Amino acid sequence: MADKQEGLTRKEFINWFWIGWATFSVALGIMGTLLVRFLFPNVLFEKPSSFRAGKPDEYGPGVDERFKDTQNVWIVRSPEGFYALSTVCTHLGCTPNWLQSEKKFKCPCHGSGFRPTGMNFEGPAPRPLERYSIALDETGNLKIDKSKTIRSPDNWTDPAFLLKV
Fold first, then answer.
1. Alpha carbons 159 and 83: distance in angstroms, whole number
2. Would the N or C end of the chain have less CB density within 10 A of its end CB?
3. Which parts of the chain register pLDDT below 50?
4. Domain span holding position 24
């Protein structure tokens, strides 16, 4: 009877050697990927929350749409003063259109209608358009701050959201 030799043969050793190196390489690759993701995170760059909107005398009465596409804001000059409205419908987030002939904002998605004040009066929108903070900066320009909003008409006369000029 032949004695069975204990231990690994040269062929088995080489096979296990390459399996070990492959496993080590995969683990090192995963750790490297995680390190790169940590050092270079996926950051969302957004527009600043406040911006200058020009001098008050540049605005005529009514709704001004110059910042609709770039800042998602309508600036309205009414007899009471200036206010800034969000261009996001309070129903599902579509962008309403200003209909000059009908003097209203109309959402193309589901038909919500808003008066120039932002008050909802038709369609499924549950509440008025949001208003942003508006003030004059030190140079006399309108400054809109989108980080400060109000949703309720009860606060529309607040000096931070209605600029009397």
1. 10
2. N
3. none
4. 12-43
